[in-house]
Amino acid sequence: MSEGPVKFLLSERDIPTRWINLLGEIPGQPLPPLSPRTLEPAGPADLTPIFPMGLIEQEVSSQPEIEIPAPVLEAYRLWRPTPLYRAHRLERELGTPAHIYYKYEGVSPSGSHKPNTAVAQAYENARAGAKRLCTETGAGQWGSSLAFACSLFGLECEVFMVGSSYDQKPYRRSMMQTWGASVHRSPSTLTESGRAQQAHPTGSLGIAISEAVEVAASRDDTNYALGSVLNHVLLHQTVIGQEATLQMQLAGEQPDVVIGCVGGGSNFAGLAFPFMRAQLRGEAQTRFLAAEPSACPTLTRGEFRYDYGDTGGLTPLMAMYTLGHDFVPPPVHAGGLRYHGDAPMLCALVRAGLIEARAYRQNETFEAAVRFARSEGIIPAPEPAHAIRAVIEEAEAAREAGEQRVILFGLCGHGNFDLAAYDAYLAGELEDPEFSEQELSDALARLPEAPAIA
Ligand SMILES: Cc1ncc(COP(=O)(O)O)c(C=O)c1O
Q1: Handedness of CA 86, 90, 92, 94 (dihedral sign)
Q2: Residues contacting ligand 1 via CB (< 6 Å)
Q3: What domains appear along the chain, each with residue ranges and CATH number?
Q4: 32-46, 50-64, 262-276: least confident range
Q5: For 416-444, what is each residue's pLDDT tens digit?
Q6: What angle do CA 188, 194, 197 make, to 5 degrees?
Q7: pTM
Q8: Does position 1 have pLDDT exceeding 70, yes or no?
């Protein structure tokens, strides 16, 4: 059978040397973050206690491209470029005329896209003289990626791990410790923010972020690192989409639709933004589809408002779709998607109608993941299982319409440490928690009195 290549591979010479920055090209007025103290636009002074200047500059830059520092490029060479696959076997299984491609980030040392930003952040912090980084982790993917990156640049690493993930994924903790990090179950009793949230023992990303920010703000030798949401994190992830652009050229096709899962928005943006830039410049016609959990449906049911990035209200307020900063999502296994808000840049594009969003229940995403594993081999992390669910819908729609649609999606991590979740699914024990209207209106009623957005 000759169906053409399965893998589209680049050489180390093809690793992008610049990150792509969409901040200056997003339609509409950019809405600045607000200081949590004054509710006025936040300036560098609001960020310097926890971030190094190199990252603050990247956060606010509107330059269309930013050069990747040589030590970061050298670290990228440990796992980049990552492969692009054509999912011939899944296509056959679905009986679809669609061509399905996936960009696989699970080949990184920690098994996901997260090291793309972790090494860039560790490098900038080490360059600025920080000795330690403190962070939160939901799925355990970000914490392990930062632990790995800190070990490359000689930094200590302290991680607050969301309680439900800490219990579900003990080996993620072992990985972080192997790379030299110390790990606490969140909510912990080590911080004021953690002590105030003991009534929510499963924890949430919002609570863990408050704990990590509190530690970073109270220690001169410690900075904070965030694995998603912020402009500079999305920026770092654009190596994914730049490589995918070259690889799609090797395949001789252009994607009609680009699909990714969204927790805070970084893997989605990393894959989509280089294609989105072509779209915004009138050079391509592409649809963009973001997949999220119905248990934490930020883009599909949240409100576009100013809100804090964390539960305790310590971070600047950002204009984003939010379910309310103190919303504690049910402990679904896609721990990386349990976040109340989303990246402001991504939200602005959803609001402008350039990205469509869909929400999926836990069981239907695992059903899609198992189908994928049984045809393509790779066991996906529960987060990209949401993207796979959306891909299957698109491929089936292409079959109904008799169209040869080209689908590109982000397989942003493997699920080799998520087997407890697969066990629960295979045993028929997974629940499908939904987000109620009452929860939404209660959470929104507790939002801070920030300026209304027109
Ligand atoms: C494998 C994986 N995918 C997706 C996410 C969600 O984050 P983001 O939306 O920033 O890619 C996470 C976050 O922890 C993750 O670990």
Answers
A1: negative
A2: 112, 138-139, 141-142, 228, 261-268, 336-337, 381, 383-384, 412-413
A3: 7-14+70-111+232-445 (3.40.50.1100), 29-67+114-229 (3.40.50.1100)
A4: 32-46
A5: 999 999 999 999 999 998 888 888 888 88
A6: 115
A7: 0.97
A8: no
